[in-house]
Design goal:
The chain is built from 4 helices and 13 strands. By secondary structure, the protein is α+β, with helices and mostly antiparallel strands. The chain has one domain. Strands 1-2-3-5-6-7-10-11-12 form a 9-stranded mixed barrel. A two-stranded parallel sheet has the order 4-13. Strand 10 and strand 11 form a beta hairpin.
């Protein structure tokens, strides 16, 4: 009799556990045995959530190349290494700083074609899940990099233009390099060496074969200056950038590498390429925005 009572009690206990499990499954929105099927499509992540690298933070420019063209305003007519065509050379020869200031065009050297070469700092943040924002202390400029396909260029052109962005990821291991190498005529360029407008910089790291890079194409901007002394680019140009995070280096430094290609049929005989470096700072304590201002030739910052 005692064994019969124990068997009935065990049966009731097992039934109670089964009911509890069923109720828990319903409470969490499915049956007790429901699991996602292998290969089932998942909702796409936002560009912010799926970012292969973190570009956010405060970054200070590392002027290790083109020092005399970046730290001081070159003399008029100095367009060394810029592949200007005849019209570009003619326009560069007419530059007049006083006339620019009088006409309210002080920001011509701080537009999208020249802002990365200005010595100063960047502050990179996410404006929202689909928009990366870069603030520049030089000229107090702001660029928005739009990932959403629905984003449209505004009707009015601006100094920073309209930037469309996407993440580029390297191929799987063993399938070759994820970046075009030096000597190629198209695509992003490996950092750390000369050629096609590049002049040294931090050595390449394994970051170029891991993670990924930000690819940005900018149009719809006002014409401006590639350099502070009136070396022009037109509103017909297309500016392409590849932005990588490199490091940490042996000393712990982390760098941002911005490779820029300017294609301008109006003023350039061929693509103008630069490679610009920034180092990550601990915080924004040195952030100090200032208005667009170009010193007369010969004055060093």
């Amino acid at each position: 009799m005692t064994q019969t009572i124990e068997r009935r009690a065990n049966t009731r206990a097992r039934s109670g556990l089964a009911v509890a499990a069923a109720l828990a499954a319903v409470a969490f929105g499915g049956s007790a045995g429901a699991q996602p099927r292998a290969g089932q499509a998942q909702p796409p992540q936002s560009p912010r959530a799926s970012a292969p690298v973190d570009l956010t933070g405060y970054w200070v420019s590392v002027v290790s190349e083109d020092w005399r063209h970046r730290m001081a305003t070159p003399r008029k007519g100095d367009y060394e290494s810029v592949p200007l065509n005849g019209e570009g050379r003619r326009v560069a020869g007419t530059w007049d700083l006083d006339a620019d200031n009088a006409a309210g065009n002080q920001c011509r050297a701080f537009g999208v074609g020249g802002i990365m070469r200005q010595p100063g700092r960047l502050h990179i943040t996410w404006a929202d899940d689909d928009t990366l924002k870069i603030d520049f202390d030089a000229g107090t400029q702001t660029r928005l990099m739009e990932f959403a396909a629905s984003a449209a260029a505004p009707a009015e052109k601006s100094w920073q233009g309209f930037s469309r962005a996407d993440w580029q990821r390297p191929p799987q291991a063993g399938n070759g390099p994820g970046r075009a190498q030096l000597g190629n005529s198209t695509g992003p360029i490996a950092p750390g060496g000369g050629g096609r407008g590049q002049r040294g910089g931090p050595a390449s790291t394994q970051a170029l074969s891991e993670g990924g890079a930000l690819h940005v194409v900018t149009t719809n901007f006002r014409g401006g200056y590639l350099r502070k002394n009136g070396v022009p680019y037109s509103e017909d140009a297309v500016i392409t950038e590849y932005i990588d995070r490199l490091g940490p280096e042996p000393d712990g430094a982390i760098y941002l590498l911005v490779q820029t290609r300017v294609d301008d049929p109006k003023y350039l005989a061929q693509t103008f390429v630069t490679s610009t470096h920034f180092r990550l700072e601990r915080d924004g304590s040195k952030w100090n925005p200032y208005p667009c201002r170009t010193d007369p030739p010969g004055q060093t910052k």
